[in-house]
Amino acid sequence: MRTTFLPYCLPSIGDDEIAEVVDTLKSGWLTTGPKVRQFEEEVAKYVDSPHAIAVNSCTAALHVALAALDIGPGDEVIVPTMTFCATANVVVHLGATPVIVDVDETGHITADAIERAITPRTKALLPVHYAGEACSMDEIFEVARRHGLRVVEDAAHAIGTTYKGRKVGASDQSDAVCFSFYATKNMTTGEGGMVTTHNQVLADRIRTLSLHGMSHNAWNRYTKTGSWQYEVSEAGFKYNLSEIQAALGIHQLRRLDGFLQRRREIAATYARELSGIPGLSLPREQADRNHIYHLYVVWVDGNQALLGRDEFIQKLKDLNIGTSVHFIPLHRHPLYRDRFGYCAEQFPVAERLFQGILSLPLYPSMSDADVADVVDAVHSTLTSGRLTAASTAERYWRAL
Ligand SMILES: *Cc1c(COP(=O)(O)O)cnc(C)c1O
Question: What pLDDT does 384 receive?
Fold first, then answer.
């Protein structure tokens, strides 16, 4: 067994990132400036979108994108239940109503679920590319077109994800795509986010709204060529990205394809070494899209495995392997359950997923030995682990 704890996630920060941050700190310019602009241009190029606006989180990206689309009181926005709370919280911030729907067995929102949830008040959809695999966007865009709905993609897990050969962000059929550079994501700026869009007017509005609603940012005011004048036409947000964060992002982006390759390599090892364990289901890839394994989500069937999910997590922790659960479905949180009146019976698939899911450690800086430790720990827990009194009782209960 490992002697040190293997965290479920760690960022990969290299010497180039550190040097660029130090250079930025010495440059005299810390807030949004030329490095942020460079980072925006490079992300736009990477995802193949004409416009990118950097913000200080994906939550901010989702919020400002919906605000720029004039989503507000009286509007309904459809979101999947299997997501992080930020996806729906931003809808609440705008005074609109999140309409939460069930997902399919892969954790994704479907066109059918969306279609069933549409009412005359529906204004927008927020598909989430769960775990680093794209939703079935062709079907979703078709429903959106037919009903005249806006589409804002939550691509927090999906920078580098492709769907039918094109990157998430490359399609001009969605209004905006929101990426996260949070510490645990595929690439990081510590905290950070990006909105990409194919719509010039929307891009301008998002840019203005992301900095107080001001017509000029600090770079355009304080530099020699700038002017002190600006106008505020609407109450915007304070969501701009700093130069220090962009310094990290520029180098993380250059390393991203290498990160994703290592992620896929580790996932292939898990797929090979963990297949055939009774009661353990592994992610399955789909032919028309890649999976960049932002998360490696496995599913434990409490009726067939030696242990239930919660006990499995504890056993792995005892063996010094960290894991996490993505996600506690939205409808289970008191806010959405009590204020919006959702209950578990409305989400049979997400409920079944939630009983058994956990995310195994998977990140580029894991060594082959780390990966082998995870494989060994899963095997020793699920294939030869002796039944404890508690797990026997649990199995008996489940069998009833
Ligand atoms: C992480 C995450 C977010 C929020 O990203 P931040 O950059 O932390 O604001 C939104 N949606 C999903 C699905 C996420 O996993």
Answer: 63
> Across-strand partners of 194?
54, 179
Task: Write out pLDDT tens, residues 28-79.
Answer: 999 999 999 999 999 999 999 999 999 999 999 999 999 999 999 999 999 9
pTM of the model: 0.94
Q: What is the C-alpha to C-alpha distance for residues 225 and 79, in angstroms, rounded to an integer?
A: 44
* Residue whose tokens read 């700038």: 226
CA of 94 to the centre of ligand 1 (A): 18
- Is 259 touching ligand 1 by the criterion CB < 6 Å? no
Query: Ligand 1 centre from 143 Cα, in Å?
Result: 25
Question: With a 6 A CB cut-off, is 197 part of the ligand 1 pocket?
Answer: no
User: pLDDT per residue over 108-145, tens digit each?
Assistant: 999 999 999 999 999 999 999 999 999 999 999 999 99
The CB of 87 under 6 Å from ligand 1? The reply is yes
Q: From the CB of 159, is ligand 1 less than 6 Å away?
A: no
Q: Would you say the CB of residue 83 lies under 6 angstroms from ligand 1?
A: yes
DSSP 324-393: B-S---GGGSHIIIIIS---GGG-HHHHHHHHHEEEE---TT--HHHHHHHHHHHHHHHTSPPPPHHHHH
Of 378, 356, 359, 366, the residue nearest 293 (C-alpha)? 359
Pairing state between β 76-80 and 122-125? parallel
Sorted by sequence, the CB contacts under 8 Å of residue 123 that are 6+ apart come out as 69, 71, 75, 76, 77, 96, 149, 150
CA of 58 to the centre of ligand 1 (A): 5
Q: Ligand 1 center to residue 62 CA distance, Å?
A: 9
Query: What are the residue numbers of the active site?
Result: 185
